[in-house]
Amino acid sequence: MGFFDIFKVKDINGELEKAKTIEGSVILDVRTVSEYKGGHIPKSINIPVDEISKVSVKYQDKATPFFVYCLSGARSAGAVRIMNQMGYENVVDMGGISRYYGEIEH
């Protein structure tokens, strides 16, 4: 990652399209439970960032493709960092749902 990459705006919509083409991919919402219940991307699962270690209970395969989002992108970046440290090999930070223009599920 280059210095100017930190200024790139993540494309959650484009990343979701990629996720749909990858068999077994997991769309992971790392916001709080109440934020998730207030509206989330369809077929996403919720594991709040402060409980991200629980991902290893549900997904033992470290090659599982994860597409991670939060509200603005800060928590998803942190979750991706932690998941990489846990040994997950295929984790994408999609950024924030605030830039998502698709259907919302409640």
UniProtKB/TrEMBL annotation:
<dbReference type="Pfam" id="PF00581">
    <property type="entry name" value="Rhodanese"/>
</dbReference>
<dbReference type="InterPro" id="IPR050229">
    <property type="entry name" value="GlpE_sulfurtransferase"/>
</dbReference>
<protein>
    <submittedName>
        <fullName>Uncharacterized protein</fullName>
    </submittedName>
</protein>
<dbReference type="InterPro" id="IPR001763">
    <property type="entry name" value="Rhodanese-like_dom"/>
</dbReference>
<dbReference type="InterPro" id="IPR036873">
    <property type="entry name" value="Rhodanese-like_dom_sf"/>
</dbReference>
